[in-house]
Amino acid sequence: MKRFFAESGTNFTLLSITAVVLGGTSVFGGRGTALGTGVAALLIMLIQNAMNQLHITAYWQYILTGILTLAAVAIYAARGRSGFASDLLARLGLRGAAGIGTRGEAQ
Asked: Cβ distance 98 to 92 under 8 Å?
């Protein structure tokens, strides 16, 4: 018989919030893009994998992920702009292309 545990997935809460914030969605209210969140999630997976390879304990991984989240929020608040992913897309010349507007809505 299979069982379900209420605590399943609770370890991914901070990681998912970090991915959304790094992806360009403001925690102060706003919109983000699926592309930005996906790129940020891949970046976080890469960082997590590197920390695992370096034998960093789960305790410190959680702390470093929290620091990354706080840094992203602080940078976003200081810059007052659209976020990391949007800046990256703008620098690559992809912002406004392929029917994607400046705020992620269809044109």
From this structure: no
Q: Is 106 helix (H, G, I), strand (E, B) or coil?
A: strand
Whole-number CA gyration radius for the chain: 16
What is the tens place of the pLDDT at every residue in 72-85? 888 777 776 555 55
Distance (Å, whole) CA 47 – CA 18? 12
Those residues with Cβ within 8 angstroms of residue 19's Cβ, 6 or more apart along the chain or in another chain: 37, 40, 41, 44
Summarised one tens digit per residue, pLDDT across range 26-48 is 777 777 788 888 998 999 999 99
Among 98, 76, 94, which residue's Cα sits nearest to residue 23?
A: 76
Give the C-alpha separation, 48 to 103, whole Å: 29
